[in-house]
Amino acid sequence: RRLVVLVSGSGSNLQALIDACADPAYGAEIAAVGADREGTYGVERAEKAGIPTFVHRVKDYPTRDAWDQALTEDVASYEPDIVISAGFLKLCGPRFLAAFPGRYINTHNSLLPAFPGMNGPGEALASGVKLAGATLFICDSGVDTGPIIAQCAVPVEDDDTVDTLTERIKEAERAQLVESVGRMVKGGWKVEGRRVRLG
Ligand code: GRF
């Protein structure tokens, strides 16, 4: 099975997938890594692993739709079975979603539907919840609203800062991503309304 991974940042989730794919028993290969900005450590990690990369910056295109089209075409050229947003900080447009129906997934650092958006760990901490976590879901046109594939919880400790909580979430998030993608690759998945069933 072929994966394309999209990143905007440090790419630690990408690295977890690169490491998992090194074992042929995992059943997947990363065909390409794309980014929406130059100079990300995620793209550097891909280059080090010998994975093809591409960058499409919104500001290099006349319209958001033109950017969306360029991104869609590049991703599609690698014929992915699953497209993974791993810290990709752009909402993809209707063209992109239509090209990879039910196959474009995102990992988010909160227990959705709580705390969508850019500051999941900070909002969890400020709200006083005692459990935080990460959610893997199928992207739709909303912000962190799609059908949920998997969730994992971690405790919020009394002395947590945003940084310590973020790190605890990310560790669990990476393990969840690797495990869930592995299951999707091996057994497939079904979307029934809001519910996703892994094979
Ligand atoms: C992840 O925690 C993800 O939930 C959030 O950004 C982080 C990306 O981290 N949207 P990395 O680039 O994979 O290290």
UniProtKB/TrEMBL annotation:
Keywords: Purine biosynthesis, Transferase
Residue ranges of coiled coil: none
Positions annotated as active site in the UniProt record: H108 (proton donor)
Binding site for N(1)-(5-phospho-beta-D-ribosyl)glycinamide: G11, S12, N13
CDD domains cross-referenced by the UniProt entry: FMT_core_GART (cd08645)
Gene3D superfamilies the UniProt entry points to: Formyl transferase, N-terminal domain (3.40.50.170)
Membrane-spanning ranges: none
Positions that bind (6R)-10-formyltetrahydrofolate: R64, N106
Stored InterPro entries: Formyl_transf_N, Formyl_transf_N_sf, GART
Catalysed reaction, written as an equation: N(1)-(5-phospho-beta-D-ribosyl)glycinamide + (6R)-10-formyltetrahydrofolate = N(2)-formyl-N(1)-(5-phospho-beta-D-ribosyl)glycinamide + (6S)-5,6,7,8-tetrahydrofolate + H(+)
Domain Formyl transferase N-terminal: 2-180
Marked site positions, Raises pKa of active site His: D144
Molecular function in Gene Ontology: phosphoribosylglycinamide formyltransferase activity
Protein EC: 2.1.2.2
PANTHER family the record matches: PHOSPHORIBOSYLGLYCINAMIDE FORMYLTRANSFERASE
Cited function: Catalyzes the transfer of a formyl group from 10-formyltetrahydrofolate to 5-phospho-ribosyl-glycinamide (GAR), producing 5-phospho-ribosyl-N-formylglycinamide (FGAR) and tetrahydrofolate.
Protein's recorded name: Phosphoribosylglycinamide formyltransferase
